[in-house]
Design goal:
Number of domains of chain A: 3
CATH architecture of the largest domain in chain A: 2-Layer Sandwich
CATH superfamily of the largest domain in chain B: Beta-grasp domain
Structural class of chain A: alpha+beta
Shape of chain A: globular
Distance between the termini of chain A: 57 Å
Oligomer: heterodimer
Shape of chain B: globular
Strand order of the largest sheet of chain A: 3-5-1-12-9-10-11
CATH superfamily of the largest domain in chain A: Aldehyde oxidase/xanthine dehydrogenase, molybdopterin binding domain
Largest sheet of chain B: 5 strands, mixed
Helix content of chain A: 25-40%
Number of helices of chain B: 5
Chain lengths: 776, 155
């Protein structure tokens, strides 16, 4: 029998029933009495100076209650760090991409709001625009932000060891260029919020936010009110994936229009707002030079990244930091030089997305590793096992690895598919010729479990035990669909020996829940988890003390399970948990059972200038094996199988973990084969779900296998680490390497569309060698 | 404005609707049934799927005036006497729900499928929900949930 009642078992989620019955309330489902409806006006130009805005016709339209422009915000600008605050709620003087917000209205119904927006006249002076990041960083390129030289929004330069010396003694060095494209987060719930401003300076805000304490801080700054005047109440969130961290135009505009009109104001973006002007993953041009010994041992990597940042900086410095710092995981790499520039272009803003910067460079590094393996006549599995990081490893940039199951993930995933036999079998099949080319490939990942940044980074939780034996958990963390509420409820239930039905996990309400950085960087299980354990542990101690008196036993002998308190070794001495709670409240002083806890990440801050240091308490590792089928006639690639092996520390709930892996496969497959924000002269050409090509249920592989390795991390709650993001880091290179195996062509430009496949196959037939790097 | 008579989840309604009002807006804003979601509002994502006279339809591109005399079932009408519908139960128990935004539409597509074809193949299930986008699940668990619900209903 397992030592746990719930942990490790495939238990349905605590938020499942409201979601399957349609009762879960998302931001757009909410109404507040007297509310108005808002809409924003967007720029039709990629780069233009605003000469004047005439809102008089909109203001005169019956039903319109308020119109605002950038000037209403008195120069307030926001951004991730003090020196990168380059974004205004509404553009006050200049627009920098098609879709940049310039004005907003509030009206008594959405149709009137829409009509009013169209009545606003903006006089623009169009400016030369730049869309290609390599062009944008040339001298003389149009300046997107006046004070910024060569449009560099952020840059990182790391240098560890001595790459030149290592290249000089390497047996083999190769250089390749990779391109990872612009893709959307893909959440189906468009941004939505309701805001209510009440004098003097009280703000209540309901918004679809994966990190609700971002708007908590941003709104306090923008409206110059104390933090405690901002009440952010979190509805159910319809997916985030990194795209619902920031505070956007609609959020600020809702508050400003509420302030102006005296009414609550609701904004709901259209999907076109999201697809045309919303945030997305950083496209990156990646130049990768790697030197190895004859036996495949990695000696050095020199990596140059040009990241297309779009019009504003947002979280971009962190993105290029992580893209470089994680080059030393998951393989031992003794020398690294990394130079990255995040460049402004007149396009929508690039930000964090599942894997945050790491998938882009891991795609380049793990695909180049297959090219190196081919050059040296090594098997892709062999070269990975040779270089795989092991527990206790310290990377050259001082990332400290505690638990690490990488080798086991490589072994287990490749054993699952009988790697050697399968690879030979598919090679033989290809020799026979025929319409379909099938191949197999793998890639590995290393990722952070609980991002460690500057500023406040601790998670905190309050636990209240009610007199009837149920428990309320008040975390600062947010569930944006990943299952955080269930994970936290599971821990509370395990510690107190009660069931999931007995535990209620609150969503964030900044008046009541403790302050929290946000749900990004795989922080919740790994950081809110230990905080919860401290909080619920305090409740357990208080209850055990009461139980010890009531059952006449030492405190240390009290155990909680099956909704009862027991005395160890004496089954006659027990008491229902509910009764214990009731008596505890009535006993002695009549104490109230509440526990609180916080967990800070007890590691030194990473050094942003050098790239040195830990970005998390713990790191996860994994391997993915993909099998693909390439249609020589149509150029279509079909992912047939995907095996995920992941070192998650400890399995909390197979249903949730498998679901997370499936979601990572889905997002990664979309990026590898289908999706791209097509942009021409700043205009997104495919702002609809059909044209953007998110994969459907018919496109997914029939086999998606999840193998989970428990390494019991010393700092993780019950030994657990993240299991939501790391997987997406290696999905793309696993698929690309499988296509390489199938076709002999390494596709270095994403996505691998049928057009690219057909063209590359044709080139290869016309005399290309066995390896034809296929680029645009 | 046009007067329409229709039945939603077994309840008869008589409403005056604007000629350009969609069924989705009527359900959400007039009847307070917010289970059907507005993802794209142009008939591409499937989050607004409801069942009209046995057919799964995209309520965001269906005009309310066309609903005269129709019987509509939304996600709120599936559970009976406090008992979850087998599809709801299966989605919950098989971990087919993550953020949940696509869930009502996907369950309604599954409902229309199983009403017509009680024993679908996996491929038939995939085809039936191919108009329901989902970023979280990769569709594997929703497909398994629909197959499990079919199995449960037969037994």
């Amino acid at each position: 029998m397992s030592e746990f009642a719930i942990l490790g078992k495939p238990t349905p989620r605590v938020d499942g029933i409201p979601k399957v019955t349609g009762k879960a309330q998302y931001a757009a489902d909410l109404s507040v009495a007297g509310m108005l409806y808002g809409e924003v006006l967007r720029s039709p130009y990629p780069h233009a100076r605003i000469l004047s805005i005439d809102t008089s016709r909109a203001e005169r339209l019956p039903g319109v209650r308020g119109v605002i422009t950038g000037k209403d915000f008195n120069g307030f600008r926001h951004g991730f760090m003090a020196h990168t605050r380059d974004e205004s709620p509404l553009a006050p003087d200049k627009v920098r991409f098609i879709g940049d917000e310039v004005a907003a209205v509030a009206a008594i119904d959405p149709d009137i709001a829409h009509e009013a927006v169209e009545l606003i006249r903006v006089e623009y002076e169009q400016l030369p625009a730049v869309f290609d990041p390599e062009e944008a960083m040339q001298e003389g390129a149009p300046a997107i932000h006046d004070h910024v030289q060569r449009n560099i929004s952020a840059e990182m330069h790391f240098n560890f060891g001595d790459v030149e010396a290592a290249f000089a003694r390497a047996d083999h060095v190769r250089e390749d260029r990779f391109y990872s494209q612009s893709v959307l987060h893909g959440f189906l719930e468009p941004h939505a919020c309701i805001a209510q401003y009440e004098e003097p300076g009280k703000i209540t805000f309901w918004g679809s936010k994966q990190s609700p304490y971002f708007p908590y801080r941003n709104l306090a700054s923008a409206f110059k009110v104390p933090l405690s005047n901002v009440r952010v109440i979190q509805p159910v969130v319809g997916g985030g994936f990194g795209g619902k961290n920031d505070t956007f135009a609609l959020d600020y505009a809702a508050v400003m229009l509420s302030k102006k009109t005296g009414h609550p104001v609701k904004f709901v973006y259209d999907i076109e707002d999201v697809l045309m002007a919303g945030r997305r993953r950083h496209p990156m041009i990646i130049y990768m030079k790697t030197g190895v010994k004859k036996d495949g041992t990695l000696l050095a990597t020199e990596c140059r990244v040009i990241a297309d940042g779009g019009a504003y900086t947002a979280v971009g410095p962190m993105t290029i930091y992580l893209a470089g710092a994680f080059l030393t995981l998951p393989y031992k790499l003794p020398n690294l030089k990394y130079d990255a520039w995040r460049v402004y272009t007149n396009k929508p803003v690039s930000v964090a997305q599942r894997g945050h910067g790491v998938p882009q460079t891991r795609f380049a590094a793990d695909c180049q590793l297959d090219l190196i393996a081919k050059d040296l006549g090594l098997d892709p599995v062999e070269i990975r096992l040779k270089n795989a990081i092991e527990p206790g490893h310290v990377t050259v940039n001082k990332i400290h690895i505690s638990s690490c199951g990488l080798k086991e993930t490589i072994n287990r995933s490749t054993e699952f598919v009988n790697w050697k036999e399968r690879k030979q079998e598919l090679a033989k099949e290809r020799e026979k010729g025929g319409r379909y080319l099938r191949g197999i490939g793998l890639a590995c990942n290393g990722f952070m479990s609980g991002a460690r940044l500057h500023g406040h980074t601790a998670c905190a939780v309050v636990v209240k035990v009610h007199e009837d034996g149920t428990v309320s958990v008040l975390p600062g963390a947010t569930d944006s669909g990943q299952g955080a509420e269930t994970v936290l409820a599971t821990m509370a239930a395990e510690v107190l020996g009660i069931t999931l039905e007995d535990v209620h996990v609150s969503r964030v309400d900044s008046f009541l829940t403790p302050v929290d950085p946000g749900s990004y960087g795989s922080r919740v299980t790994s950081t809110a988890g230990p905080a919860l354990l401290i909080a619920v542990g305090k409740c357990r101690t208080q209850l055990a003390e009461v139980a010890a008196k009531l059952l006449d036993a030492p405190v240390a002998e009290i155990e909680f399970r099956e909704r009862k308190a027991f005395v160890k070794g004496d089954p006659t001495k027990q008491m229902p948990f509910g009764k214990l709670c009731r008596l505890a409240y009535q006993y002695g002083s009549g104490q109230v059972i509440i526990g609180e806890g916080y967990f800070g990440q007890n590691v030194a801050l990473p050094n942003w200038d050098t790239g040195e240091g830990d970005v998390a308490n713990a790191y996860t590792f994994g391997t993915q094996v993909a099998e693909v089928e390439v249609d020589r006639e149509t150029g279509q690639v079909k992912l047939k199988k995907m095996i995920v092996a992941h070192d998650l520390g400890k399995m909390f709930n197979p249903l949730i973990v498998e679901g997370q892996h499936d979601g990572s496969i889905y997002g990664g497959m979309g990026q590898a084969l289908y999706e791209e924000c097509l942009n021409e002269d700043g205009l997104t050409l495919n702002p609809s779900i059909l044209d953007y090509k998110m994969p459907t249920a018919l496109d997914m592989p029939g086999v998606m296998e999840s193998i989970n390795i428990e390494t019991n991390d010393p700092l993780g709650p019950f030994g657990a680490k993240e299991s939501a993001e790391g997987t997406q880091v290696s999905t793309v290179p696993a698929i690309v390497n499988a296509i390489y195996d199938a076709t002999g062509i390494m596709f270095t430009d994403l996505p691998i569309t049928p057009e690219k496949v057909l063209r590359a196959l044709e080139q290869k037939e016309q005399g290309g060698g066995p390896i034809v790097p296929a680029s645009i | 404005m046009t007067n329409i008579n229709f039945v939603v989840n077994g309840i008869r309604h008589q409403l005056a609707v604007k000629d350009n009002e969609t069924l989705l807006d009527v359900l959400r804003d007039r009847l307070g049934l917010t289970g059907a979601k507005k993802g794209c509002d142009i008939g591409e994502c499937g989050t607004c799927t409801v069942v009209v006279d046995g057919e799964p339809i995209l309520s965001c591109i269906t005009l309310a005036v066309e609903m005269e005399g129709k019987r509509i079932t939304t996600i709120e009408g599936l559970a009976q006497n406090g008992e979850l519908h087998p599809l709801q139960k299966a989605f919950h128990e098989h971990g087919a729900v993550q953020c949940g935004f696509c869930t009502p539409g996907m369950i309604m597509s599954g409902k229309a499928l199983l009403d017509k074809n009680p024993k679908p193949t996996e491929q038939e299930v995939r085809r039936a929900i191919s108009g329901n986008s989902c970023r979280c699940t990769g569709y594997d668990k929703p497909v398994k949930a629909i197959l499990a619900a079919a199995e449960a209903e037969i037994q």
